[in-house]
Every structure is written in structure tokens, then in C-alpha cells.
């Protein structure tokens, strides 16, 4: 996944300075460069997006018995940390306009519950309807945690997704737009909360010569070597977004006229990173037909995320909505979207898909 080879330079630096350890110059620089890139006050580099979500909830004071609203259409890592904190998720439906949290349903949910926090996700690099969501959450004085794991490089109006709410969570897992093989970032403009999260992430060691702990800690920091990879990757983010957009527009131009095909929604206030090119199929050709036809040629395509309220583990928790996320799941396909794809690769995928009509 290296485009320019900056990664090796920073990794080498970690070796040269003998910082094959958690923390060190690359970690500090990665946090700083990340803040500069997305225009945030403070950032904390962590071992995963999941650990970033966990510490966001903890920093926000979410604990035993608290209710947390979470978008249902997402990857399980958005909500699992709610359970780590012994809190209770309530799932909120998506809206066709954004594929993300449905503001009207969110309002409805506030009439039924008093949550401690709201987790909104920017799936596939599309941004949620943040003005409306923030307006509702501000009215009830409830914190907003943005799961921007899939949306690094996406803007809502002139702001980076992940910097509009109280906390932003990013992932550098292998499948994301930039990767450190595994890693994450927690950002916030509440610098003191980020410092507190930094303390918890490094085993909650009190300031003492001996090992003293007055709080529960975690081993969640990103290593200095992986942070070096992250610094190199951050430099190629814009180039990746450009290529992802090219891929999306290529598919859209070739496939959007087929009956029953509808591409993911790009709203006027959204400049996406086009992490994955996704479409809905509502005609005779079903998502599974596309997935299987591509699979026969050893090409991977996938359904959209299966909503959390349909997951066996989460079936006992409340869901508020009208089944939009169920429909999106039923009809959606994520197309191959790797930035290494050539025009030839794209033509091949398009040819296989068109042959089904
Ligand atoms: C990848 C992902 C995460 C989790 O990130 P990890 O770094 O894999 O822990 C969380 N939420 C969403 C929406 C994701 O896609």
C-alpha cells in the first residue's frame, strides 16, 4: 500500500534512534501532523479505531447503565465499546439521503430515552447530516462521538468529518484509506480530555517513582514504528482520495444507467473520500448475483454492513426506525475500490456486472 515510500524513511528513523518502542518521536509527530491535516486541537494515537472509540466513551463519562444512541448501519466496532463500558446501546435507523443516522428518527429516540452520548458514523466516506444531528444533540445537551473510521479525507461543508462533534474516531486498519497495518486516532478540541485518555491508554500510571495506579488503565498506545508508517501514509492521503473518486466516477458513468442501479448519495454539503464505491440494486439483478459473478472471476465484492439491530449479539437492544437500514443492507453492494486498480481492472469488473443485465 506504499505509493511514495515515505514510510520506510520514518520506520528507519525509529530504528536509527533506537525507539522500537511505544511512544517516541514518530508518535508525537504523527499526532501533530494528523491534527494539522484535519484541523483539530488534540489527537491521541492508539492501537486501533476500536480503542479510540472505547476511550472516547470513557472520556465522555459513559459508564454502567448509561444509554448510548448508535447508528445501526455500521461495523460492530462502532458499538462494541459501549458494551465494554457496561452501557446500553439503542440503535438508530439510517436515512436514504445519507445512508447514515436519520435525524428525524434521532429526534424520536430522544422522546423515549435520555442518552449520555450519540455515536454517528460516516460510512464509506459519506458524511452524516451533521448540522441537523448537532442541532438535536445540542438541544438535549448530549455529546456527539463521530465514528470517522471510514471517512478520513471526507469533508462536511468545509470541515473534516470527525471534527464537528465532541470526539472523532479514526482507524488505520489494513482495509482503511490509509493504514499502519493496525492503528487508530482519537481527536477532540477538549485537550484535557485527550490528556486524560492518554493517561488511561498507557496503563494509567500515576506520577510516582514506583508503579502506582489509582485508576483502571489500558495498553492502547500505537507503537513508534507503526506511527512512522502512519506519517508516510498521511502524505499520500490526498492522492488516495483522488484515485478513489476516479474509481467511483468510472463505475457511475458505466453502470448508473442500468435499470435498478442507484449509486451511493453524494449530498451538496459532502466532499467524500469515496473510500468504497457502493450501489443499491432494486431491480431484478440482486446484490448476490453481482457478488457471485465477480467471485467466479476471483474478484471480491461485498454487501453493505449488516445493521447492528439484526445482529444476534445485539438482538435484545432497542432499535428505533423504519427499516431503512434493513433495506440498504438487503440491496447494497460494495464494489472493488482498491487504489491500485487500473482502468483495465475497472473495465473487467464493469464487463462482468453488465453481463448480468
Ligand atoms: C474499521 C472500523 C472501525 C474499527 O477500527 P479498527 O481500527 O479496526 O479497530 C470502527 N468503525 C467503523 C465504521 C469501521 O469501519
TrEMBL record:
Family to which the UniProt record says this protein belongs: Belongs to the DegT/DnrJ/EryC1 family.
Magnesium keyword on record: no
Protein name: Aminotransferase DegT
Family matches, as CDD domains: AHBA_syn
InterPro entries: DegT/StrS_aminotransferase, PyrdxlP-dep_Trfase, PyrdxlP-dep_Trfase_major, PyrdxlP-dep_Trfase_small
N6-(pyridoxal phosphate)lysine: modified positions: 176
Gene Ontology terms, MF aspect: pyridoxal phosphate binding; transaminase activity
